[in-house]
Amino acid sequence: MDWEPYLPLIAALVALLVGLAVGKAWERYKLRDGRWIDRRKARDSQHYVLGLNFLVSNQIDLAIEELSRAARVDADALEIHLILGNVYRERGQVSRAIQVHQALLQRPKLTRLEHGYVLLCLGLDFKRGGFVDRALEAFKEVLRLAPDNQYALLYLEKLHEEQHQWDEAYRIRRQLVDLSGPDTHARNQAILGFLENALGAEAQKAERADEAARHFESAIATDASTTPAYLNLGDVRLLAGDAPGAIAVWTELMEVAPERAHLALERLERLYAQQGMPQLFETECRRFVASRPQDWRARLALGVHLTKRGQAAQAVAPLFEALERNPHGLTVHQAIWTVLLQLDLDRALVQRYIEAARSAVFFLDPHVCLKCHYRSTELLWQCPHCHEWNSFVEERIAAAQQSSSEM
Ligand SMILES: [Zn+2]
After folding, report:
1. pTM exceeding 0.90
2. Cα(68) to centroid of ligand 1, in Å?
């Protein structure tokens, strides 16, 4: 799931929810204590409401100012300190965040719920600051207090993934599967598939081929769209001398995920060349494109293959077909220029190329919004997405590095 850009927002929302829940528990606790303190004093203060409003509108400095004032109105209010700490973290003041949250842990008579929330926030502080071991410890402590805390499980899984501790990540995802409803089934299977594939890749690296193969097979069984598992399984089989097995699983990938077929085709081209039967690759490409009128990558692969083998005249047709289907890909244009050169810039073909390329659309002058990452083909003064003024900068795209060596 691509939620990286939304993390600060999610964190702020979590902080709010956490704050509300903790606030309720706090209220109850104080009533039991018998002393009369107006628990809602701080939250009723305009500073608190203003602080939250500034937080939501991303005016962090003002939010901190108002929340700090609200905290002074009622120094005991746990939720305000919790949120303040989170805001410090989100703007990179990690040690300050840790300080605030650790001070909360020192409070006597924290309820189990409060204890868990403070630890969760502290774990996020450690994670943000790069203190991986302490973050792991904090999240595990949360789970000791509340074994079904899905936030703690999710953060713990991410930490293990970052550390390439795939076994632990896999185990935690299984726990999350048990805790979540059927609506997340497909998503969970996809993640489990990729984690299983990572376990296989690890075994493959350590030259434990049988174990690797079992993981890759299991990844495919878990979720048939785990593309890298097909590629890796073929690699393992080929290394063990099972070329037909490799061909079988790569061909299967082309059927299951035709939009990723080019990844299998790269490998098939190499294998058939090694076996001294390059014409089998041509056959495979032609078989594949015959039933897929939209595909451009297999047509490109076929054209490049024929060009490399000195059959430029035969390469023209599949390359122009690729160009018609994707006139925006620079790799297609490069392949066509290579073939045109081999054909001594045949005037009729160059003319045909110019006409076909006329429909090509490239980003003439790409710009991106610094605030929300909205992309535009030209400089704009106000972002149509987040409505910020003057937020666009020139987007620099690095040149592709592979293509020159391949052509
Ligand atoms: Zn924007």
Report:
1. no
2. 30
